[in-house]
């Protein structure tokens, strides 16, 4: 299965390699993709997969999605329960460790989007993940107790 945390092309560009497999994506993201991409792109990178609309959905044992809007209207994060604790894969809810920890978001975010991102990050941190994987980071952020 494939999970698209959101539908920007740098996160969906390999979808076509998984033709026929399940694609977990928020319905708002499909609508968003249809407004920012041309019809053939949506067809090739989304509709060739078995679309499973998700919001707060269990995908497999110990794997579920939660809504974390802000970066895009239907952004989701993936929560994975492991022996070492919860891992949160948050896509671009925060693109860098600095964004996540300092809450200094790019200037292109509207005030409303910044509020949504901060609420989404608060949600993730309230779940007390032991590690967070960001969409544009080169590693895993191990959370220290003061951030939990």
| Share in helix | 25-40%
Query: What count of helical segments does DSSP give?
Result: 5
Spatial order of the strands forming the largest sheet: 4-5-6-7-8-9
- Given as residue ranges, the uncertain stretches (5+ residues, pLDDT < 50) are none
Provide the structure class. Answer: alpha/beta
Give the C-alpha Rg. 15 Å
Mean of the pLDDT scores? 91
Quantity of strands, as a count: 9
Sketch the major β-sheet: 6 strands, mixed
Strand proportion: 15-25%
Silhouette: globular
Distance between the termini: 30 Å
Helix and strand pattern: EHEHHEEEEEHHEE
Features:
3-stranded parallel β-sheet, globular, 6-stranded mixed β-sheet, alpha/beta, 24% strand, 148 residues
Question: Can I get a quick summary?
Answer:
This protein is of the alpha/beta class and 148 residues long. It has 5 helices and 9 strands. Helices cover 29% and strands 24% of the residues.
Layout of helices and strands:
Layout: E1 2-3, H1 9-12, E2 22-25, H2 27-36, H3 39-45, E3 50-53, E4 58-60, E5 63-67, E6 76-82, E7 85-89, H4 97-102, H5 111-126, E8 131-133, E9 140-142
Parallel strand pairs: 1-2, 2-3, 7-8
Antiparallel strand pairs: 4-5, 5-6, 6-7, 8-9
């Amino acid at each position: 299965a494939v999970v698209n945390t959101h539908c920007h092309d740098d996160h969906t560009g390999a979808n076509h390699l998984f033709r026929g497999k399940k694609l977990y994506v928020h319905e708002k993201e499909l609508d968003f993709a249809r407004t920012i991409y041309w019809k053939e792109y949506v067809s090739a990178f989304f509709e060739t997969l078995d679309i499973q609309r998700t919001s707060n959905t269990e995908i497999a044992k110990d794997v579920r999605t939660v809504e974390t809007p802000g970066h895009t209207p239907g952004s989701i994060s993936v929560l994975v329960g492991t022996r070492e604790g919860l891992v949160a894969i948050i896509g671009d809810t925060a693109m860098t460790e600095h964004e996540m920890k300092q809450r200094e978001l790019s200037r292109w975010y509207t005030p409303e989007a910044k509020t949504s991102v901060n609420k989404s990050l608060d949600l993730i941190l309230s779940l007390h993940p032991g590690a967070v994987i960001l969409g544009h980071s080169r590693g895993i952020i191990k959370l220290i107790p003061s951030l939990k």
